[in-house]
Amino acid sequence: MPPLLPVLAAAQAEGVVSGEHTRVILTALGELPATVGYEDQRLAEKHLVEAAATLRPRQVAAVGRRILAHLDPDGVLACEAEQQRRRGFSLRPEADGSYTARGRLTAACGALLLAALTPRSAPQPTGAAGPDPRHHGQRLHDALHDLAGVVVRRTELAESGAPAQVIITITADQFTTRTGLAETSFGHPLTVGQALRLADEAAISLLLRDATGVVLAHGRTKRIATRAQSLALIARDKGCSFPGCDKPPEWCQRHHIIAWADGGPTDLKNLTLVCGHHHREFDRAGWTCQISDGLPTWTPPRWIDPTQTPQRNHRISRQ
Predict the structure, then answer these.
(1) Closest by alpha carbon to 251, among 262, 269, 237?
(2) In this prediction, what percent of the chain has a pLDDT beyond 70?
(3) How far is 5 from 11, CA to CA, in rounded Å?
(4) From CA 25, how far away is CA 51, in angstroms rounded?
(5) Domain encompassing residue 35
(6) Exposed, middle or buried, 113 (CB in 10 Å: 0-12/13-18/19+)?
(7) What CATH number does residue 256 fall under?
């Protein structure tokens, strides 16, 4: 197969660029949004390789930043599609048994994780052992450790599937149009669409304000399924209800078929279990869900099934 980056591949084969140069160039090209055209991407590759022939890697990285600023002058916060393209996470084991974490999170994932870790990473009160000796990074690490332990050791359903609190501020116009950027209590932006989808995943405190910043409404959601409702969903759906998915109930979220933000009630006629992947992706892929004869049924988009014949997960169909 031909190389994906032919100019860089040729320069590396000829020994014009070092391994460090190659890493810097790959990083710079990876930062380019998907909206950048093919010709501009190839031109950026050519300029970076030419710069690598005479400049040090750190200087080549600066050239890459200038190219990015030229091709994407307004892009500090990427669109949702770009966030999805760049998302990733890895845990690399080290020789001493520890792990190195590396990744890039979407706005929604980052908001959820930060909301879960922040209250658990506060310094411990000064006691007999004196003040908390851990720095902020160590406290965040220990909070993540505790959070992972809770998930692994959990043997029964919690009253709520979302103990963490997420506070999001949007304008009344944004709530109506579903456009623009909302803001979390940590000052981090995310799209209004992402913010409202979080209503199916976490306890949301929604601050609704007008264009001048005056708070029009402040209400804590009552949308979270109760323990009794969750047990009933497990008995009915037996796991993710999306057709063909075999994820067990422990990996699933409670999905409002008519979105809570659109007035959908939190009752069994409007709820189904969906794993995280399908919860995020089914709407983008064009699937819809409804309760038919008391059971969750999914309708595929026309590009998958021109007849759009409703489908059920095989577990739900069993008697």
Answers:
(1) 237
(2) 79
(3) 10
(4) 10
(5) 6-71
(6) middle
(7) 1.10.30
Same domain assignment for residues 242 and 188: no
pLDDT band at 130 (very low <50, low <70, confident <90, very high): low
Q: Are residues 232 and 290 in the same domain?
A: yes
CA 267-269-273 angle, 5° bins = 80
pLDDT of residue 216: 54
Number of domains in the chain: 3
The contacts of residue 84 (CB under 8 Å, 6+ apart) are 106
> CB atoms < 10 A from the CB of 73, how many?
8
Dihedral angle computed from the Cα positions of residues 121, 125, 127 and 130, in that order, rounded to the nearest 10 degrees: 70
Q: What is the pTM of this model?
A: 0.51
Same domain, 293 and 235: yes
Q: Distance (Å, rounded) from C-alpha 281 to C-alpha 1?
A: 31
Residues 6+ apart with CB under 8 A from 210: 171, 172, 216
Is the CB of residue 67 less than 8 Å from the CB of residue 44? yes
On whether both 285 and 237 belong to a single domain, the answer is yes
Same domain, 234 and 294: yes
Task: Quote the pLDDT of residue 75.
Answer: 61
